[in-house]
């Protein structure tokens, strides 16, 4: 649970974490600046090429978090089809591309490297902000998001195997409890390793 870094090395694993996070921030800003679906489609193809550059197994592993986006894609698509608003295409392309890029960075960057970058950014505020704790909290949040998406997908599949009804909100109690259980285990692991200064 403490790491979601892809175990096999790719060319991106050796790049500095700070550079990758800065590139992700700039790419996200650029995605929101784009308005035309054609331009966003090109950006999505670029993101797909970036993911594919890690190899076939890497690309397949990176598709799992993207698959968890399908309920959001379906809702956005249905809403904009009902409104007959073509802007939904841009929203969907932007969302998928941003998540694909963020997942690429997550899979190719060690947790410790991400914490180090965040600590460096917070260093000027060290007297008023516990930089190490904030950095760890941010890094763990980034790591937990795809885990929670996968867990929600697994719970939804388990529900559908037992009931014809749509799971919807019914999986939320189980998802909440499993997330709290994971958080407890991570806290215990951190305490066993000496915690955070």
Question: Would you mind describing this structure in some detail?
Answer:
- It is a single chain.
- By secondary structure, the chain is mostly helical.
- The chain has two domains: 96 residues, no CATH class; 86 residues, no CATH class.
- It is built from eight helices and no strands.
- Helix 1 runs antiparallel to helix 5 and helix 2 runs parallel beside helix 5.
- The radius of gyration is 19 Å and the shape is globular.
Described by strand count, sense and barrel closure, the largest sheet is: none
From the N-terminal CA to the C-terminal CA, the straight-line distance is: 21 Å
**Total helix count?**
8
- The strand count comes to 0
**How much is the average pLDDT?**
81
Shape: globular
| Rg over alpha carbons | 19 Å
Helix content: over 70%
Overall tally of structural domains: 2
H/E topology pattern? HHHHHHHH
User: Which parts are unreliable, with pLDDT below 50 for 5 consecutive residues or more?
Assistant: none
Structural class: mainly alpha
Query: What is the percentage of strand-forming residues?
Result: under 5%
List the helices and strands and how they pair.
Elements: H1 17-33, H2 37-52, H3 56-67, H4 70-83, H5 87-107, H6 111-122, H7 131-162, H8 172-192
What key attributes describe this structure?
single chain; 197 residues; mainly alpha
């Amino acid at each position: 649970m403490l790491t979601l870094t892809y175990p096999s090395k790719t060319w991106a694993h050796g790049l500095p974490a700070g550079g990758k996070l800065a590139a992700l921030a700039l790419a996200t800003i650029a995605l929101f600046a784009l308005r035309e679906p054609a331009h966003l489609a090109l950006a999505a193809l670029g993101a797909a090429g970036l993911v594919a550059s890690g190899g076939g197994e890497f690309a397949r592993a990176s598709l799992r978090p993207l698959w968890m986006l399908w309920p959001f894609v379906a809702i956005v698509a249905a809403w904009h089809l009902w409104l007959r608003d073509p802007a939904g295409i841009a929203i969907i392309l932007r969302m998928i591309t941003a998540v694909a890029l963020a997942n690429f960075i997550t899979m190719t960057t060690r947790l410790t490297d991400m914490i180090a970058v965040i600590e460096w950014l917070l260093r000027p505020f060290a007297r008023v902000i516990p930089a190490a704790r904030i950095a760890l909290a941010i890094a763990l949040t980034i790591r937990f998001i795809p885990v929670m998406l996968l867990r929600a997908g697994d719970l939804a599949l388990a529900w559908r195997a037992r009931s014809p009804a749509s799971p919807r909100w019914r999986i939320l109690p189980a998802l909440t409890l499993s997330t709290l259980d994971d958080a407890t285990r991570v806290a215990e692991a951190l305490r066993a390793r000496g915690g955070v200064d």
